[in-house]
């Protein structure tokens, strides 16, 4: 469990008080470096003087850094730190006792030093690289012919904390790409001890150092996500932090790597940027002493900190569209007999997700009440004409009009000017279809089959907003621009349909959970007059 800032502060104050009494010699520590570490950790500014004092007084803890299956990029990244400077880091903040590459010239002396440190059982362990656990001989290291798996086990046994530095160590890495001939895997798969994952191929020096510093300062766990990644670094979608995001919103996409507009800041989505699917803080912390990061340098993000990025995101330089799929993650529909409930089944123990006419979540107390507010402008022409108000929105519509002229003209000539406010999720499919196909949707299954045909597992999300009060309100209206952005960005209609279904499910899940908890219900039922829809959303009944 992660501690509150107040608790962390009192731990630090207590540790400083003990050190102040021990009359230790003070080290010269850069306050800028400490400020930068505190900032990236997301801690308030008043931690800086405390952390600075602590680093002045503390005895740097020993760090062992192992190399398993990898390219040494993580160490290269670390070497380029400037705040703190690398030498200050390895002498004043930590004590780097063993690092296979940096110490290679020391040969057997480095190896015997490693043994000494291991015996003291008082060290942090950073591991760079994946491990070959099934056929360990694929990674045989050093004059004694030890294999990586044995070295890892030997070191992990007595480490105080274990860090998987980089994507290889966290998830297997590039060498684990299909068909993974060496059967490389992330170290947490073979260790019983807890492992903190710092993925990235490589991770930034900032994320590596800030993680180490957090554990040195507090000797506590950071707040981690379900993949044991620190939330402070991996909690936000990279795309939302990107300096090119406004251009994405305006549909200003670089068309190729020769496109001069890349220099003007155009978005790189159409040339393969996977930023919308990556969770990392690269735009904030950057690389090479904060000089740049991939997207600033003109190449899209390849989602290098995500599990299986090497196999799961298609080509690096194309958006994830079926045309470029070499994996097939298509959704398999639940083909078991599913129970199509009706209003008659509603009772005091259950709630009913109703898909026909008005999409509703009904619950029964004294009366039958609808928990869901879901309404939007369902006339594509009215939406288009009302939407183009801000500079970004005007540019988006202009881009759409220019690049998808026949689709744009189809909408302008085939819809009237009357607003149609709908509460029906199915109307969303009728709304979106002409934007991505340039014709009217004839029947619901045509849209659902597009989503089912998509061959990647990572959704291109719609940024709906769900707020929970007396009712749950799923606000889709601000997200109705997404089909225009995505189609301009080179996503195919299958990807867009899949993204829509995925996002709807995510938000319905939040609403259903809230209704179930607020009204103390046990079970979720579902009704639809369309069987495919029923099966697609069936898993919501098991929340
Ligand atoms: Fe390389 Fe590190 Fe990638 Fe892996 O970085 S940059 S292959 S994450 O283990 O050296
Ligand atoms: Fe930035 Fe890539 Fe998102 Fe475009 S798609 S805004 S380049 S992260
Ligand atoms: Fe990796 Fe993307 Fe950052 S490729 S380094 S997660 S910008």
From TrEMBL:
GO terms for molecular function: 3 iron, 4 sulfur cluster binding; 4 iron, 4 sulfur cluster binding; electron transfer activity; ferredoxin hydrogenase activity; metal ion binding. Keywords: 3Fe-4S, 4Fe-4S, Iron, Iron-sulfur, Metal-binding, Oxidoreductase, Signal. GO terms for cellular component: [Ni-Fe] hydrogenase complex; cell envelope; ferredoxin hydrogenase complex; membrane. It is found in: Cell envelope. Its cofactor is [4Fe-4S] cluster; [3Fe-4S] cluster. InterPro entries: Cytochrome-c3_hydrogenase_C, NADH_UbQ_OxRdtase-like_20kDa, NiFe-Hase_small_C_sf, NiFe_Hase_small_N_sf, NiFe_hydrogenase_ssu. GO terms for biological process: anaerobic respiration. Pfam families: NiFe_hyd_SSU_C (PF14720), Oxidored_q6 (PF01058). It comes from the Bacteria. Belongs to the [NiFe]/[NiFeSe] hydrogenase small subunit family. This is [Ni-Fe] hydrogenase, small subunit. It comes from Campylobacter armoricus.
């Amino acid at each position: 469990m992660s501690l509150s800032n107040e608790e962390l502060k009192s731990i630090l104050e207590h540790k400083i008080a003990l050190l102040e009494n021990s009359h230790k010699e003070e080290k010269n520590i850069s306050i800028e470096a400490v400020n930068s570490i505190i900032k990236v950790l997301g801690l308030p500014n008043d931690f800086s003087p405390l952390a600075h004092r602590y680093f002045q007084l503390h005895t740097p803890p020993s760090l062992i850094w192992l190399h398993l299956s990898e390219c040494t990029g993580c160490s290269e990244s670390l070497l380029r730190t400037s705040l703190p400077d690398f030498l200050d880091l390895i002498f004043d903040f930590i004590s780097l006792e063993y690092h296979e590459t940096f110490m290679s010239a020391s040969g057997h002396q480095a190896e015997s030093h490693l043994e000494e440190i291991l015996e003291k059982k008082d060290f942090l362990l950073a591991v760079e690289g994946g491990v070959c656990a099934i056929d360990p001989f694929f990674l045989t290291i050093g004059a004694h012919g030890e294999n990586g798996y044995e070295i890892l086990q030997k070191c992990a046994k007595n480490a105080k904390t274990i860090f998987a530095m980089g994507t290889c160590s966290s998830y297997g890495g590039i060498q684990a790409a299909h068909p993974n001939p060496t059967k490389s895997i992330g170290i947490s798969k073979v260790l019983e001890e807890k492992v903190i994952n710092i993925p990235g191929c490589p991770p930034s020096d900032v994320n590596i150092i800030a993680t180490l510093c957090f554990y040195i300062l507090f000797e506590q766990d950071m707040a981690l996500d379900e993949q044991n990644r620190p939330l402070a670094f991996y909690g936000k979608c990279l795309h939302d932090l990107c300096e090119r995001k406004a251009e994405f919103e305006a549909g200003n996409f670089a068309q190729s790597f020769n496109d001069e507009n890349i220099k003007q800041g155009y978005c790189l989505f159409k040339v393969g940027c996977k930023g919308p699917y990556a969770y990392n803080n690269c735009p904030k912390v950057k690389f090479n002493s904060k000089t740049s990061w991939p997207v600033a340098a003109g190449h899209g993000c390849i989602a290098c900190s995500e599990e299986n990025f090497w196999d799961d995101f298609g080509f690096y330089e194309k958006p994830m569209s079926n045309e470029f799929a070499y994996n097939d993650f298509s959704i398999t529909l639940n083909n078991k007999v599913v129970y199509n409930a009706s209003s008659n089944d509603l009772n005091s123990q259950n709630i009913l997700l109703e898909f026909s006419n008005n999409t509703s979540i009904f619950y029964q107390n004294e009366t039958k009440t609808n928990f869901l507010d879901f309404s939007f402008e369902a006339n594509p022409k009215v939406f288009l004409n009302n939407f183009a108000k801000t500079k970004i929105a005007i540019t988006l519509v202009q881009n759409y009009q220019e690049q998808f002229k026949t689709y744009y003209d189809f909408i302008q000539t085939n819809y009237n000017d009357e607003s149609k406010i709908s509460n029906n999720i199915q109307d969303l499919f009728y709304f979106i279809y002409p934007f991505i196909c340039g014709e009217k949707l004839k029947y619901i299954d045509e849209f659902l089959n597009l989503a089912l045909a998509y061959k990647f597992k990572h959704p291109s999300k719609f940024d709906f907003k769900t707020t929970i009060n007396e009712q749950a309100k799923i606000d889709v209206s601000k997200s109705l621009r997404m089909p225009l952005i995505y189609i301009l960005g080179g996503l195919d209609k299958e990807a867009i349909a899949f993204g829509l279904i995925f996002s709807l499910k995510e938000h319905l899940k939040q609403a259903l959970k809230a209704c179930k908890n607020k009204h103390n219900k046990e079970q979720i039922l579902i009704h639809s007059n369309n069987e495919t829809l029923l099966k697609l959303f069936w898993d919501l009944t098991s929340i």
